Amino acid sequence: MPVLALLAACGGTSDAAEAGSELQDAAEAAGLEVNTSPDQDRVHTAENPDAIALLPPELAEQDTFTVAVSAYVAPLAFLADDDATPIGNETDIAQLVADALGKDLDLQVKAWADWPLAVQSGDVDATISNVTVTEERKELFDFSSYRNDELGWLVKAGSDITEIDEPSDIAGLTVAVGSGTNQEKILLAWDEENQAAGLDPVQVEYFENDGDTILALQSGRIDASFGPNATAAYKAKVSPQDFTVVGTLNGGWPDTAQIAVTTLKGSGWADAVTAALQGAFDDGSYTEVLERWGLEAEAIDAPETNPPGLPKTS
Fold this sequence. Notes:
Blueprint: H1 3-9, H2 13-29, H3 49-53, H4 57-60, E1 64-69, E2 78-79, E3 86-87, H5 89-100, E4 104-109, H6 115-121, E5 126-127, E6 141-148, E7 150-156, E8 174-177, H7 182-196, E9 203-205, H8 210-219, E10 224-228, H9 229-238, E11 243-250, E12 258-264, H10 270-283, H11 285-292
Parallel strand pairs: 1-4, 1-5, 8-9, 8-10
Antiparallel strand pairs: 2-3, 6-12, 7-10, 7-11
């Protein structure tokens, strides 16, 4: 079983420790400074008076910045060797924001489907979990962008598929994709275009979790997996003998989209969080975090409060 599939498929603490150890060894061999233990030596940034000054008094008085993360797959957010502590790129970004705002960081693991209610109820101050900015979500939430929303086509190393850049490249392939995701919409749109042009249809496959997808890819049951490039690129970097990325595109195709810290609309957090991120951009700690997890290709030039989001679907 490949290193990343071990991590995604493990079910108990001993399994997680073994898989985490193998993941750490492979990551280090790939030149990544990855620590999969619960004792994280996270990148830090300095307290930012300008960002703190933007907080309303009631938020400035808080000692803690509580953030929801969905610990599902490396390198975005996943569980450490103890099978309990969330670690990854998103938790490191949360640390930078908490540092800049002069607050202790409290990470709360939430299922992806639960983050909107967690923010709206005040259970958490923010969600940092690969959330794409959309115009529909902006009706309820504010955003502070920190990364491009990139999707990647992952194939088995040595595959005959060497490039996926346009719809015709996927004609006749069997592709795994997450149900209800932006990438599913893109995949189905490309397939519709292909079939209208008389090309072979795509066979779409859905799996319960990342581990099942990876096993299907390695066994040859599917030709490619289409999902967040952050996870695809990480797999290819730490296990190049198993995987390769043969194409990327923005998650907002045909538009562009960004990933952002998500806070309750009008709560007073957004401008301060954006300023906190800007400080981390300026002192290099933001770049250091992305490089730690192999995501430097997804860096943006500067954070922005409520950037243009994906348009509402009709």
